[in-house]
Amino acid sequence: MKQTKMLVVIAMALLFSLPMLHAQSISHTVRANVPFQFTVAGRTLGPGEYLITTDREKVVTFKGIDNEEFTVALSNAINSLDPVSPKLVFHRNGDSYSLAQVWMGYSDVGREFYAPSKKTVKISRSKPDQVVMAIGVK
User: Fold this and answer.
1) Do 49 and 32 meet the contact criterion of CB atoms below 8 Å apart?
2) Distance in angstroms (rounded) separating the CA atoms of residues 132 and 86
3) DSSP letters of the chain?
4) Nearest to 137 by CA among 26, 27, 30
5) Based on CB atoms within 10 Å of each CB, which residue in 25, 93, 99, 111 is the most buried?
6) How deeply is 95 buried, as exposed, middle or buried, from its count of CB atoms within 10 A (0-12, 13-18, 19+)?
7) What does pTM read for this prediction?
8) Calpha distance 128→70 (Å, rounded)
C-alpha cells in the first residue's frame, strides 16, 4: 500500500514538472544577414550571416555562419502591444551600429540589450538613428 502511494506521488510530481521543464527548454532561432559591422554586449561583430538564438530567459547567442564570430549577450524582455515579425533594431551613430533589440518573430515579446557602461559611451549631442532590419526565422 505504501509503495502504491509513493508511486502515485512520484508520478504526480513528474506530471506537474513536465510543463516547467518544457518551458525552460524552448529555443528560438532566427537567421540574419547583417551587411555592416556592429556591436552587441561590448563585442564588435563583422558583417555577415548570423544565427541568433534565445534559449534562456536573458541569454541571446550570435553565431556567424560565414565567419567564425560568436558571442553571448544578456538582455531584458520588452513587450509590444501586437505580435512583431522577426527583426533587428540597431542604433546608428555616424558609421557605428549597435544592436539594441532582437524580435524573434510573431510574438509580443522581444529582447533588449543592456546599454554599455557610461564609461565606454562616447558623448554625442545628436540622438542616434534607428535602423530596423527584417530577418528570417530559421
Assistant:
1) yes
2) 10
3) -HHHHHHHHHHHHHHHHHHHHHHHH--EEEEEEE-S-EEETTEEE-SEEEEEEE-SSSEEEEEESSS--EEEEEEEEEEEEEEE-SEEEEEEETTEEEEEEEE-SSEEEEEEEPPPPTTTPPP-SSPPEEEEEE-EE-
4) 30
5) 99
6) exposed
7) 0.70
8) 26
